[in-house]
Design brief:
binds ligand V47; 11 strands; single chain; TIM Barrel; 14 helices; 4-stranded parallel β-sheet; 4-stranded mixed β-sheet; binds iron/sulfur cluster; alpha/beta
Length: 375
């Protein structure tokens, strides 16, 4: 069976759901790595991408309270926070002090892209706040755009977009167009978790169904907003749930071509309601490899170093990943749940991780355009 799958992959053919099940169940991790690397090479050559970015969470107050989420709080609960728009602008402004960090002793400093604030993208996601009106989110984007006109704003999961539609009474399309007009550049892939209803009900009964998540993304793609996609694995799902999830993403991508990257998110169990254990390194690498092989219509598969750790994300570059995300600077979601990594890496450290994996480090912009190649 593995030989037949191998031949399909080498011939550039699509593998089936059954093939993906077989690969997940296989212990032949080296063959998985070789096949995934083959697909990654066909897509991106020896390149592995990173970005200078910063994460910001405007609030952790959330009406959903998903059972795997250690980040969220109820209103008035200890540890709940709300950032004002000025707080957010202040955080983004602080990057200016770090703009030269991680550059090392560059041999060609003039070719180096350094945005005025030290990062080229801000990634904004937060809880579903019970009181904030939709206008608040538009004002947030407009204020950021006004203060940092060149900063790319990647913001709001499909779950947040659906919430904005409900609190404002506007259609999804209307909400997305309005956000785009206020400065939204693209959307992250969070909130997907596991689409299958039985699992979703156990994980996050208040969250929108998988079908709605896909509908939001389809609408975003239709109005010209590129997005990512994720899958949260390693909790209560089984391998068939993972394959079902990947399969639904692949079908939507066939229709829209609007997903840029797929990011498998390794479950972190601390301070959560469902508890459980950390994922194993083997599972992380296998999941990366099977995702890369299966999602033949995704250009990029990302090894998010915050969740995988520096070392596994580096190894993941040999198991199909072509991106390790970015400088991050501040991270709360994973760290609330027992994240074992640091919260920030310099560009120099990211380049080093990539180069030591034998790949060509490429700093990218938010649409995977090359900013700088590190020889
Ligand atoms: O939506 C929540 C997940 C996501 C836990 O698109 C957890 O480029 C593990 O989506 N253990 C947010 N995961 C992070 C995310 C993301 C990160 C980096 C890049 C991109 C991108 C997207 O984190 C949530 C949820 O799926 N999450 N709790 C937990 N205990
Ligand atoms: Fe809220 Fe998102 Fe956490 Fe769920 S995962 S409780 S929607 S912040």
């Amino acid at each position: 069976m593995l030989t037949a799958i191998r031949e399909k992959v080498l011939a550039g053919k699509r593998i089936s759901d059954e093939d993906a099940m077989y690969l997940f169940a296989s212990d032949d991790i080296f063959t998985l790595g070789a096949l995934a690397s083959h697909v990654a090479y066909r897509k991106n050559g020896r390149k592995a991408f990173f970005i200078r970015n910063r994460h910001v969470n405007p609030t952790n107050i959330c009406v959903n309270r998903c059972k795997f989420c250690a980040f969220s709080r109820s209103q008035g609960q200890e540890g709940a926070f709300e950032l004002t728009i000025d707080d957010i602008i202040g955080k983004l402004g602080k990057g200016q002090a770090t703009k030269a960090k991680g550059m090392g002793k560059s041999r060609s400093p003039r070719s180096v892209h350094v945005s005025p604030h030290g990062f080229s993208e801000v990634h904004i996601v937060g809880g579903l706040h019970p009181d904030w009106p939709f206008e608040h989110y538009r004002n947030m984007l407009s204020a950021i755009r006004k203060r940092f006109p060149k900063l790319h704003i990647k913001a709001f999961t499909a779950v947040e977009i659906d919430y904005f539609s409900r609190i404002s009474g506007r259609s999804l399309e209307d909400v997305l167009r309005a956000l785009k007009q206020s400065g939204l550049g693209s959307m992250p892939g969070g909130g997907a978790e596991i689409f299958r209803e039985e699992i979703r009900n156990r994980l996050c009964p208040e969250k929108i169904p998988g079908e709605r998540w896909l509908e939001v993304m389809e609408t975003a793609h239709r109005v010209g907003i590129r997005t990512n996609a994720t899958m949260l694995y390693g909790h209560v799902e089984d391998l068939a749930d993972r394959v079902d999830h990947l399969s639904r993403l692949r079908r939507l991508q066939d229709r829209t071509k609007g997903f840029q990257a797929f990011i498998p998110l390794a479950y972190h169990p601390k301070n959560t309601e469902i508890e459980g254990s950390y994922t194993s390194g083997i599972d992380d690498l296998k999941t990366m490899a099977v995702s890369r092989i299966f999602l033949d219509n995704f250009d990029h598969v990302k090894a998010y170093w915050i969740m995988l750790g520096e070392k596994i994300s580096q190894l993941a570059l040999l198991f199909g990943a072509d991106d390790i995300d970015g400088t991050i600077i501040e991270e709360k979601i994973t760290h609330s749940a027992g994240g074992l990594s640091g919260e920030k890496l310099t560009a120099g450290q990211l380049v080093n991780l990539i180069q030591k994996a034998g790949k060509v480090a490429v700093e990218r912009d938010s649409f995977y355009k090359t900013v700088r190649v590190y020889p």
